[in-house]
Automatic annotation (TrEMBL):
Protein's recorded name: Aminotransferase class I/classII large domain-containing protein
Domain of life: Eukaryota
Domain Aminotransferase class I/classII large: 36-396
InterPro entries: Aminotransferase_I/II_large, NHTrfase_class1_PyrdxlP-BS, PyrdxlP-dep_Trfase, PyrdxlP-dep_Trfase_major, PyrdxlP-dep_Trfase_small, TyrNic_aminoTrfase
Post-translational modification N6-(pyridoxal phosphate)lysine, affected residues: K242
Key words, A-Z: Aminotransferase, Pyridoxal phosphate, Transferase
Single GO molecular function: pyridoxal phosphate binding
Cofactor(s) listed in the protein's UniProt record: pyridoxal 5'-phosphate
């Protein structure tokens, strides 16, 4: 009898709620219409947002130099780490190349961080709505997510009192995602200071997922949370995926902003040790990082112009759609639609909305359920070219009118 081959506890603990929902979502678009997906948080899918020639040339140079053919040190090449520290540094707080660990995307940076912090039974405070991978990774380590609510009525500001009340003796960190996926919101300074006060009161570090940094619209301002405190330890998460429009290049990073008492010393050693579990991030792209991070402002301005125009286009389009409130996007590349199911004849919830919409109109949006969202919401990724957005929004409008009570 051959020995049975089973899987590890980690496999059994790894659940991906977004996959569970998306895989079970009935996605049956009509055959006679162009399928329009506004579901994927990948800015490259439509071809209208791409890295510019300068960024591509930096990789080409690295490729031809053969300097990135070999393994890098597991935390990354010193030049790349120093360039990331220069890029991420805030005036009020030192950050050096030694404080940076280069990873295979921000998702790997998050995983290393949770792995270094979370023992079975520990918990991390997470935003709801939030990026579902946090919970997946924490649960896979035997940890637990505890969700603090973001309030749609206040443009998704964090409920800081609720956050404070969630802390218990097994809480190991507070995670903040700003600008937010999936909400497209940007925390104002007062909210961030409130979060810092909670962390300070309980002696907790903050994990700051700031991968959408600087993708901020109109008069909103992005404050790196590390810039607002010199005493709370901050573990920053970032990467090239969004601001530099290259999610496929798989470069992320962990930034260690220690406090004056060096309470992150052990975590730093832990992260360094864990970074050796894989033999370093993508060497080729690391060689190009010093140039990529200094790409001219015109590149960033262009990305931002596309996002801002699309954000405004979206706000305008949904003003007249019955049963739908578009919560004004402030940053990132997302917006949330609030669905007033009472105004529809035959739409039960957000999932039903998404399924019927794709079946009838061939437009895919993700229901808020995918993001631990209570109430009925749908997330829209608005990176598509304007004419596609217009077409998708016209179809959503027609759908809502047809189903209106
Ligand atoms: C909030 C947030 N953090 C992290 C990631 C992962 O980024 P990466 O592609 O660099 O792994 C994403 C990707 O969508 C994200 O939305």
């Amino acid at each position: 009898m051959p020995r049975e081959i089973t899987t590890s506890a980690v496999v059994k603990l790894t659940r991906n709620p977004i996959r569970d929902i998306v895989d079970n979502l009935k996605i049956e678009p009509p055959k006679d219409r162009r399928f329009l997906s506004l579901a994927l948080g990948d800015p490259t899918v439509f071809g209208n947002l791409q890295p510019n020639d300068e960024i591509v040339a930096a990789v080409e140079t690295a490729l031809r130099s053969h300097a990135g053919d070999g393994y890098s040190p597991s935390a990354g090449y010193p030049e790349a780490r120093a360039a990331i520290a220069d890029f991420a540094r805030v005036p009020s707080r030192p950050l050096a190349g030694d404080d940076v660990i280069i990873t295979s995307g921000a998702s790997h940076a998050l995983y290393l961080t949770f792995k270094a912090l979370v023992n079975p039974g520990d918990n991390v405070l997470l935003p709801a709505p939030g990026f579902p991978l946090y919970d997946t990774q924490i649960s896979s380590l035997g940890g637990q997510a505890k969700f603090y609510p973001l309030d749609p009525a206040r443009n998704w500001a964090a409920d800081v009192a609720a956050m404070d009340a969630l802390v218990d003796d097994r809480t190991v960190a507070i995670l903040v995602c700003n600008p937010s996926n999936p909400c497209g919101s940007v925390f104002d300074r007062a909210t961030l200071e409130g979060i810092i006060a909670v962390a300070e009161r309980h002696g907790l570090p903050i994990i700051a997922d700031e991968i959408y940094l600087d993708l901020v619209f109109d008069d909103n301002v992005f404050h790196p949370i590390a810039s607002l405190s010199t005493t709370v330890p901050v573990i920053g998460i970032g990467g090239l995926a969004k601001k530099f429009l290259v999610p496929g290049w798989r470069i992320g990073w962990v930034l260690i902003w220690d406090d004056p008492a060096h309470r992150l010393a052990e975590l730093r050693r832990g992260l360094m040790g864990l970074s050796a579990l894989i033999l370093g991030g993508n060497s080729l792209i690391q060689r190009a990082i010093p140039t990529i991070l200094k790409v001219n402002d015109t590149f960033h301005r262009r990305t931002l112009d596309v996002l801002i125009n699309n954000a405004h286009r979206s706000i305008e389009a949904f003003k007249t759609v019955p049963g739908i409130t578009c919560i004004r996007p402030q940053g990132a590349m997302y917006l949330m639609l609030q669905i007033d199911v009472a105004q529809f004849r035959d739409i039960r919830d957000d999932r039903d909305f998404a399924e019927q919409l794709v079946a009838e109109e061939g437009v895919l949006v993700l229901p808020g359920q995918c993001f631990h969202c209570t109430g009925h919401f749908a997330r829209i990724v608005f990176t598509a070219p304007a004419e596609r957005l217009d077409e998708a929004y016209a179809r959503i409008d027609a759908f809502c009118r047809r189903h209106q009570r």
